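task queued by scheduler; priority normal; single chain, no ligands, no partner chains; default sampling; output format set to structure tokens
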Amino acid sequence: MTGGEREQTMAQVDTAQTGQGGAALSDTDSGAGYAGIRRVIRIGCRPGPWKRGLVLAALALLLGLVMLLHALVPNGIGNLGSLVETFLPWFGVFIPVLLAGALWRRSASAVAALLLPVTVWLSLFGGLLVDKSHPGGDLTVVSHNVSADNADPAGTARALIASGADVVALEELAQNDARLLVDATELRARQATVTYEKVLGEAYPYHSVQGNVGLWSRLPLSDIRPLDIGGDPAMNKTRALRTTVATDRGPLAVYVAHLGSVRVMPRKGFWTSERNVGAHALAKAIVAEQNSRIVLLGDLNGTMDDRVFAGLISRLRSAQDVAGDGFGFTWPAKFPMVRVDQILTRGVRPVRSWVLPATGSDHLPVAARIGW
């Protein structure tokens, strides 16, 4: 082999080892190259922030639509619509939960979708987060479901007197009717009613008890009568009254009501039949009322978001909505979740609405200051 042939052979070997005259490619370098290519492909195929968390985005939109269109949720199946409306403010609890999930997933679509439920919730309840109370007023009214199981009726009565109320309405009193079957609970309730009459009578010279509701007043009462709002005829219980309170600004029609109980039942769903009958009867009485100035006090066993109260809300204003601070939840007293105890008005101006401290009842008392 000549020298030229040896040089040509060496050049061919060098080319085979290095590629096109470049550096040698080891197995390691080749593997790293393939890994880099795979990494680029994965990054390219990875969903962007608008494609991540689509399930969360769908849940956020569903939440917003349920709150926005709650009136369209049907009552045909277990009164689902009324149940949703009873706890409607609590749907806002799902917003921070969904937001946390959206941030964890880094989902721009889920965050954007949350704008709908946030906007709807604020439009429905944002006004309740602002203190709308004002100074002044002419009359303070209080309403309290004292509970038939109240172990301290005297203490409850003293607490209501200490509130400075001019008019006090009580619900869930015992009805002193010999035709009613008396058990241990009913006997305690009757004894409690005697206690309320005695203790409250020291501060309120005018009062009336009709069935399981009563009214105590510092101002004279007239035209006192029970109000038929339906209920179980077999129980023979009066659950509402109407009277006129004589004020310095003229007569004020005062209604006190305790509508039927509601409960969630396995087969019937959200059972509200007796409550609904009472709500419609009460609305009918308000329509027929001749006095332009009305205050309705009582345990209505429902929130004013519930469609069954549309007849009342179309003619009366909630003192809490007009002059309250917060939701004013009243039940259950240990952890209030809904406002079922109401003060509604017409022809007078609520200037303040608030919830009083707990008593021996499972409901919290509610109070309002009203003016002319």
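post-processing summary
- Confidence is low (pLDDT under 50) at residues 15-25.
- The radius of gyration is 34 Å.
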